[in-house]
Amino acid sequence: MRWTSLWLLSGVLVAQAVEPASPRADLPLPSIAASGGLFFHDLNGDGYDDLIVSNPSAYGVFLFVPKERERKNLQWDEGWSQVLREGKAGDANSLPLILHADGSRAEVVATDKALSITGADGALVALTFDQLLKVPGPAPKSPQDSLRSWHLKPGFTASLVAAEPLVQDPVFVDWDAQGRMWVVEMGDYPFAPGEKTKDGLVGQDKVSDLQTGRVKILEDSDGDGLYDKATLFLEGLRHPTGLASWKNGVFIANIPDIFYAEDTDGDGKCDKRETWFTGFTAGNPQHLVNGFCWGLDGWFYGANGDSGGDIECVKTGQKIALGTNDFRFNPMTGVFEIEAGRTQYGRWRDDWGNWFGNNNSILGWNYWLPLRDLARNPDLAVRSTREVINNDKRIFPVSQQLRRYNNASAINTLTSGCNAMPFRDVTFGAAATNALFICEPANNLVTRQVLDYRTMPITSHRHAEDADNDFLSSEDNWTRPTMARTGPDGALYVVDMYRLVLEHPEWIPAEIAHGLDLRAGQDKGRIYRIAPKDLAAGPAKVDADLIASMQSTNGWRRDMAQRLILEKGDTALVPELARVVENTAQPAAVRLQAAWTLRGLNKLSDESLRLLLSDAHPHLRAQAVELARSRPDLAPTLVGLLADDHPVVQRALALAAGDVVEPHRTALVAGLMNQPNLSQPLVIATLTSAKAALAALTPEERKSWQQRAKAAPAASAPAMPIITNQNPDRQKIVAQYAGVAGLQGDAVKGKMLYQAICIACHTVKGAGNELGPDLGTVAAKPTEQIVEAILDPNRAVELRYTTQTLKLKDGRVFVGLVTDENTNNLSLRTGAGLELILLKDIAERKNSNTSLMPDGLEALLKPQDIADIIAWIRQP
Length: 876
Known about the structure:
This protein is an alpha+beta fold.
């Protein structure tokens, strides 16, 4: 149909386009519709006319959202608010012009399944409804073009060491002692064959030949630093997430198992496979068990993935509930233990035995309180066993900011953080001294933090060079870094899954997911090497002289040397290892790892430990305390370290005290507790060792010690406001605040209101408690949506923000949000504040579907108050 008016001007007949009337004059059109070029037609068959716009300045396809299908959390209000495509005229995804620059209008005809657009020149373009209903994205780049898309820091260079068809969908890499790179490929992302979303709305229409989890072995056959040969070690896996070399094979994380796989005949293919641990919960592939990281103690450490499980240990017969914890296992014995967690993807340590992890919206946690130490004092309740290293979540992507599928306004803030990994070499100089690299695949970058060891728990800050940019960022929207780790040659290896769609369709509205190619990029993948320009690519193979490898500044080489020595139980190397420990000219990290290797061989002498306990390097002193904690002859030396004021040493003493023989245990505990400026975390660490010492105290002393452990941190937020008057008709209340959008907010007043009412549960600009969403991530949402979230919080509450009801054995009942859980207790945020509840005191525990955020905030906030708060959270 064509809309045209004819009129006579100076004897010339002129045709001018007349735009079709909107089917709903009471609803606003998208802003680009003001320039004309509109066509209304029901594209998805739901009985409502959708909107196609194409004019000389812009184009778009907008589905109509009726009132009953409004989804405020997706910014879908009634009207043409569901955007399938939108952009500037002439770009790669633009539509044929409906309205031309001269004011004439193309003829547009709709059939049952297609749209035909005929221009003034008679050229006809046909677009099927299926094409119009798909969500287009930017085109993929070739490996070389993608390489050129990286933004690097001065003095650094990027090279492409592997790409398709050698690798596809890589998410994890490691090397073996032969120098081969092992690659984990999650080819079955987002779905393994037969899987679908929980609501069943988005499944797999077809199964691809590449739709399988795989492990490959890459080799550099000519020594030029580029991998040129790939061997498929194992396929048919279900969402594999990580691996680690052990003896002649590898451990692989593959739902629901961790299994050992080996090539026994040397052809590069797995022909031996045995399950060690099973029972890890299956589910969304972004939330599965993953790992592994080699610990100084000779155990492998893994991450929970946010899914947990009831673990059966095949080798030992153990049955362990993983719960909200991470884990470790001993590759010699098969013993499995829980660790303080919970990490979503990637639990890693630094050279000094400190552990870090994160989740999609947290830069990093430092796991500062080991569960095995906390469990010594089951009456001790703690707020958390981990602390956020930095609340500053700013990132600086250089790629085009595309509309997100489920949170369109979350930009320039961390949303997909993974693999918070310390850099473990000296090859980058000041650029990576104490550096932690964190991948952010949603924003196509790797960000950098600098760890501050002068605080305990450990904190971090942005590098001085990163004030307005990140260490590594790409202009290519398909670039998806999932891992950035130190390689055997001291370079940073970046694993790029290279996909168009990163979000799992579990969190993409089905209406949009059906129009996406969820597997676009399944046949692609890249691995990059980032290094200073003068750092030559070196062989990854470990030197046959394991002592030489142990003396490397490279953390990966030391780990591999230690692993090989412990695998073989090679006690012939003990004298040489002891000389490394005692050689003060060696780097501290080298001496420390040699000491732990001797410990693994049961050959670490008291003399070597005494030397380390008196060393000038605080991390050597701290780890020497850990190594000496169960040695009676060294107990007096440990007591002598009470004058050491470095936080890492004080923490080590506090935790070690519980294993020290009396009377030195009590001397350590009392000596630490009597320090007036001992921080609260160090008080808690000391009290894990103090169960016996508490019994020897007077009632007044015992009460004083326990109160110091329970004291709130200095920056603690006030308790949540208590609402005593609320109207159950929440929609009516929301309607009464409809005018907030028209009010001018005062950011200064809004800040004060935030601090009085919101800070107990929300962070913004780095301040507050992160129980509910960070308000910075919702600031750009429509005012009406923010108002509704404040006044009717239970309308669209996320599961992680729902409350639990706890009934205690003494009859008391608490309702709140569990913010942390460990072997001793859980932390429950209630309307009155934070409650630490011992697990042994809980009689009954139930989940609910209500938000911790209370109904009735209209009793505290007038419309102008909400406008002021919104002005504050939106202020840059």
